[in-house]
Design a protein that fits this description.
The chain is of the alpha/beta class. It is 41% helix and 16% strand. The chain has a seven-stranded parallel beta sheet, sandwiched between helices. The chain has a six-stranded parallel beta sheet with strand order 10-9-8-11-12-13, with helices on both faces. The protein is globular.
C-alpha cells in the first residue's frame, strides 16, 4: 500500500480554456491529499495556466497542433519525449503519475512502468468515439484512426488503473477487456455559493437553451433541426445557444434559412464565471449529446435549479432519473428532442424536479465528497 500521498504528478493537456476548470478541480483535489503536488501540462501556445497555490509545482510544455497528419504524428512523439524528460526530473519525488485526458501517451506510460511507478489514467472522454462521429469513412481517415488506435490500446494495457466516471462507460467506450482494473472516480465538485438559484424557476423568462461546444459529438445540430417545431409549439419562447466550434457557421445558416434567427440568442463562447447568470435565465437546458463523460455543465445547471433534458450517455443516467431529477430522451433525433422539450416544459412537477436535481448535486458533488472518494482510491493502490 502506498503511504506517501505527497508523490502524485498530474500530466494533462490544455488545448482549450474549457479544460481549465476540470484541471483546476483535479489539482485542488490532489492538493488536499498530498503535501506537494507536481504537474506537467502540455498546452496550446495561446493559453496560460498557473498553479493555484504554492503547494503545486508546474512544468508547461507548449504544443502546436497541426492539421497535417504526418506532422501531427511527428509532434505527438516529440511531445512524448519532452514529457519523459520532465518525468525523469521528478522521478525521485513521484510514486504515482496521474494522466488526465482521452489520448494515451505511449512513451511516458512505458517510462513510468520501466521505473516502477503507478500509472493512473483518468478518462474524461473517448477519442475513438468522437473520431467516428466525424462521419469520414474515407480510406485515408480509416488508416489514420487505425494508426492512432494502436498506441492507445497499448496505453490501456500499460496503465495500472484506467479511471472512468461511471460503470456505464465500460460498455459505451468498449473497455470490457480492461474492466477488472478499471476504477471509478471524477474530478467534479461545485461551488454552491456561485452555482445557486438567484431567480426562481417560475420567475424566469421563457428561455430554453444549449451551452457547450458546437461540434458533432454534442448533437447540437439535431437540436437546431428541432427548433422550428419547438418554437411553433411555444410561441412565447426564445432560445439561447452558447458556445463555439466548427459548426458555428452552419448553425447560423440553418437558423437563418428556417426564418427563426430573430428568436435565437447566439452569445458565442460563455466564460465559466458567466454560467450562473445564464442558467438562472433558463427554464430548461438541453444536452443532445452522442457521447459524454460526466458533463460539468449538467451539474452546474442543476445546482442553479435549472432542469436538464439529456440523452442517456456516459454518466448522465447516474445523475438524471427521468421525471425525478431531470429528463431523459431516448435519442437525439430532432423529432425526439422536440417531443421531450414539449414534455418537459409542460410537466406539472417541473418545479419539484428542478428542486430534486439541485438537492442531488448538492449531496453528491461537494468538494469533501469528491476528495473522500479519491483518498479511498489512492490509499487502496498496491
Amino acid at each position: 500500500m502506498i503511504q506517501d500521498l505527497s508523490s502524485i504528478c498530474i500530466i494533462s493537456p490544455l488545448f482549450h480554456t474549457a479544460f481549465i476548470p476540470p484541471l483546476n478541480h483535479l489539482q485542488r483535489i490532489m492538493s488536499d491529499l498530498s503535501e506537494k503536488n507536481q504537474m506537467i501540462v502540455y498546452q496550446s501556445e495561446n493559453i496560460t495556466y498557473y498553479a493555484e497555490n504554492e503547494k503545486n509545482t508546474i512544468d508547461v510544455i507548449p504544443y502546436t497542433y497541426s492539421s497535417n497528419f504526418i506532422f501531427r504524428l511527428f509532434n505527438y512523439f516529440f511531445l512524448n519525449a519532452k514529457i519523459v524528460l520532465k518525468m525523469m526530473r521528478r522521478m525521485e519525488r513521484t510514486n504515482i503519475y496521474l494522466f488526465f485526458g482521452e489520448r494515451g501517451l505511449l512513451l511516458p506510460y512505458f517510462f513510468g512502468k520501466l521505473i516502477g511507478k503507478k500509472i493512473l489514467w483518468l478518462l474524461p472522454s473517448n477519442f475513438q468515439t468522437m473520431a467516428y462521429l466525424e462521419n469520414d469513412d474515407s480510406v485515408t481517415n480509416t488508416l489514420k484512426l487505425t494508426v492512432q488506435k494502436i498506441p492507445h490500446a497499448i496505453c490501456y494495457s500499460l496503465a495500472d488503473y484506467p479511471i472512468v466516471y461511471s460503470p456505464n462507460l465500460i460498455r459505451e467506450w468498449k473497455l470490457e477487456k480492461y474492466s477488472k482494473k478499471i476504477l471509478f472516480a471524477h474530478e467534479h465538485f461545485l461551488d454552491f455559493t456561485t452555482f445557486t438559484v438567484t431567480v426562481p424557476l417560475n420567475k424566469r423568462p421563457p428561455v430554453i437553451g444549449y451551452i457547450g461546444r458546437l461540434s458533432t459529438e454534442k448533437g447540437v445540430h439535431h437540436f437546431i433541426q428541432a427548433l422550428p417545431e419547438i418554437l411553433t409549439s411555444h410561441t412565447e419562447f426564445r432560445v439561447c445557444i452558447g458556445g463555439a466550434g466548427q459548426l458555428k457557421e452552419s448553425i447560423e445558416s440553418s437558423l437563418e434559412a428556417e426564418g427563426i434567427l430573430d428568436r435565437i440568442d447566439l452569445p458565442g463562447w460563455i466564460s465559466h464565471d458567466e454560467l450562473p447568470g445564464y442558467f438562472n435565465r433558463f427554464r430548461l437546458l438541453i444536452l443532445p449529446s452522442y457521447t459524454e463523460g460526466l458533463p460539468n455543465i449538467m451539474l452546474e445547471a442543476m445546482a442553479c435549479g435549472t432542469p436538464v433534458l439529456a440523452t442517456p450517455v456516459g454518466a448522465i443516467p447516474d445523475v438524471i432519473k427521468d421525471g425525478i431529477t431531470g429528463f431523459i430522451m431516448e435519442n437525439n433525433s430532432p423529432e425526439c428532442i422536440a417531443e421531450h422539450v414539449n414534455r418537459a416544459l409542460s410537466h406539472a412537477d417541473l418545479q419539484q424536479i428542478a428542486e430534486n436535481g439541485k438537492k442531488f448535486v448538492e449531496e453528491n458533488y461537494s468538494f469533501e465528497k469528491t476528495v473522500r472518494s479519491w483518498k479511498e482510491i489512492i490509499s487502496d493502490i498496491r
